[in-house]
Design brief:
This protein is α+β, with helices and mostly antiparallel strands and about 400 residues long. It has helices spanning about 55-70, 85-90, 150-160, 195-200, 210-215, 235-245, 260-265, 320-335, 350-355, and strands at about 45-50, 80, 100-105, 110-125, 130-140, 170-175, 180-190, 230, 250-255, 270-280, 285-295, 295-300, 305, 310, 315, 340-345, 360-370. The chain is built from nine helices and 17 strands. Bound molecules: tetradec-13-ynoic acid - COA thioester and magnesium ion.
Length: about 400
C-alpha cells in the first residue's frame, strides 16, 4: 500500500496494537562515516541544488514554485501563499543548516521544479528531549507529479539530516501516512464574513441573512484585557518562562530557549504577531498569545485574489481567562485586516473554539515523527507543537 513508507523507520499500521514495542528511536544512529556521502540519484534531466533563501533571486524562485504548486484544499479553491518574508523566517531559526534547504532544478533551463526543507528543533517526547529536523515545504511541480520524485526528496533530506548527526524528524501532512502520532482538525473564525462567503470559503448558515451573519461575527473595537500589548524584545525572558512552563504539560512539545523565543515569537511584520498581558499593578507578564500570517491565493475568483488568514500559534494564559485572551487576539487580528482566524484543536484550544464562534473545517492535519515510536496515538489536546 505504501511502497516507500513501508521501507522507512516510522510506526507501521500493522504495529498499531502491538504494545510490546518500546517507545523511543526505532533504529539506532549509525556512525556518520557510514552515512552515504553522495546525493541520491535523480532522473537524468534534473540536478540537486542547495537553495540560499537569503538570495533575493532564489527566494523569489522558491516563492513562485510554492505559490503555484504547494498545498491546496480538497476542492482546489485556495492555495497556500507563503510570503518571501515568511519563508526567510521559517527557514532561518537559530542553528539552521543551509544544506537542509534543498531544491531540484532542470539541468538545461535551471528551472526550479521541486523543493523540501528541514530545520533543527529540540522536541520533547514525554521526558525525552530529542534533536530533530522539522521537515516542511515538500513540493513537486504539478507537471512532475506521480513520478516517485517525493521519495527521493525525502531520502535526500534524511541523508543531509543524518550528516549532522540528527536521527529523528517531525512533520505534518494533510494525507494519511504510516502512522500519525495524532490527527488535528482546523477550525475557522470568520472576521470578514462577507468576503468569506463571496469567495466560497464559507456559506450563509441556514435561516441566516447577511446582516444577521455580520452581527454574529462582530467584535469589539479594542481588546478587553488591561495591559494587553504587543510583545517586545525585553519580554523575551518572561515569555520564555511562561511558554516553557506551559508546554511541559503536553506529551509532545518543543523545548524552547530564549533564542528560539526571540526568533519564533517576537513580532515580525506580516509574519508573526505576539501579544502579552502586562499586569498594570506589578508589571509582571501573565499571559501571552500569538498568531502567524499565512495568506491563501483564491483560485479563479474575478475580484478577490488573496484570503488573509491568521493561524493561532502558541498561547499561554495564567491570569487572563483563555477565552478572553483569544477574543482579544481575534480583535487585533480583525484590526490588522485578516479575513479569518484559524486554529487547530490541539493544546487547550478546544476550550475556546466553540465559544468564540469558530466552525470546524473539513481538512485534517496529521502529525508524524520519523524514527521515533510512541505507544499510543495521542489526543490532539496532548500535543503542544505547531508546525508552520
Ligand atoms: C507528504 N505530504 O505516500 P508511498 S507536507 C510525505 N508527505 O509514498 P510521488 C508523501 N510523503 O505511499 P507526488 C506526501 N505526499 O507509496 C505523498 N507522499 O509509500 C508519499 N503536492 O511520491 C506518498 N506538499 O513523487 C507516496 O508523489 C510517495 O508527485 C509518492 O509528490 C508528492 O511538506 C508531493 O501537499 C506532496 O507537491 C510532493 O503531491 C506533491 O504527488 C505536491 O509519486 C502539493 O510520496 C504540496 C503538498 C506536502 C506538504 C510537508 C511535510 C513533508 C514531510 C516529508 C517526510 C519527511 C520525513 C522525515 C525526513 C527527515 C528524516 C530524518 C532524520
Ligand atoms: Mg513525482
Amino acid at each position: 500500500r505504501h511502497k516507500f513508507w513501508e521501507t522507512q523507520p516510522v510506526g507501521q499500521f500493522k504495529d498499531l496494537n502491538d504494545t510490546s514495542l518500546p517507545e523511543g528511536p526505532i533504529e539506532p544512529p549509525t556512525p556518520i562515516s557510514e552515512v552515504k556521502q553522495e546525493p541520491y540519484n535523480l532522473p537524468n534531466l534534473y540536478e540537486w541544488v542547495t537553495c540560499d533563501i537569503n538570495s533575493e533571486d532564489t527566494c523569489a524562485e522558491v516563492y513562485n514554485l510554492l505559490s503555484n504548486n504547494y498545498v491546496e484544499d480538497d476542492e482546489n479553491m485556495f492555495r497556500f501563499n507563503y510570503s518571501k518574508e515568511f519563508l526567510r523566517w521559517a527557514l532561518h531559526p537559530p542553528g539552521y543548516y543551509k544544506t537542509w534547504h534543498i531544491g531540484v532544478r532542470v539541468k538545461s533551463s535551471k528551472k526550479l521544479v521541486a523543493f523540501i526543507t528541514g530545520i533543527p528543533a529540540r522536541i520533547r517526547v514525554r521526558t525525552d528531549v530529542v534533536s530533530m529536523a522539522e521537515v516542511n515545504f515538500l513540493c513537486v511541480h504539478k507537471k512532475l507529479r506521480s513520478k516517485r520524485l517525493a521519495p527521493v526528496m525525502i531520502k535526500e533530506v534524511t541523508r543531509r539530516v543524518h550528516l549532522e548527526n540528527i536521527w529523528q524528524a517531525a512533520y505534518t501532512a494533510g494525507v494519511v501516512l504510516p502512522t500519525p502520532i495524532t490527527s488535528c482538525q482546523y477550525w475557522h473564525r470568520s472576521l470578514n464574513p462577507k468576503k468569506l462567503i463571496d469567495v466560497g470559503f464559507s456559506r450563509l448558515g441556514p435561516r441566516m441573512t447577511m446582516s444577521r451573519t455580520l452581527k454574529l461575527f462582530k467584535l469589539p473595537d479594542q481588546p478587553a484585557t488591561p495591559g494587553f500589548r504587543k510583545m517586545e524584545l525585553r519580554d523575551v525572558p518572561a515569555v520564555t518562562r511562561l511558554l516553557r512552563a506551559y508546554l511541559m504539560q503536553f506529551v509532545v512539545a518543543p523545548d524552547l530557549d530564549e533564542l528560539d523565543v526571540e526568533h519564533w515569537v517576537l513580532p515580525k511584520d506580516e509574519v508573526v504577531d505576539s501579544y502579552v498581558v502586562e499586569s498594570p499593578e506589578n508589571h509582571k507578564i501573565t499571559d501571552f498569545c500569538s498568531f502567524y500570517t499565512l495568506p491563501s491565493s483564491i483560485l479563479g475568483h474575478p475580484t478577490h485574489l488573496i484570503l488573509k488568514a491568521a493561524y493561532s500559534y502558541y498561547n499561554v494564559s495564567t491570569k487572563t481567562p483563555l477565552l478572553q485572551l483569544m477574543n482579544d487576539a481575534l480583535i487585533v487580528a480583525k484590526h490588522k485586516g485578516f479575513d479569518v482566524f484559524n486554529a487547530l484543536d490541539l493544546m487547550h484550544n478546544e476550550n475556546f473554539l466553540k465559544e468564540l464562534k469558530f466552525g470546524p473545517g473539513d481538512g485534517k492535519l496529521h502529525y508524524y515523527l520519523y524514527n521515533y515510536r510512541i505507544k499510543h496515538i495521542l489526543r490532539a489536546s496532548e500535543l503542544g507543537l505547531v508546525l508552520l
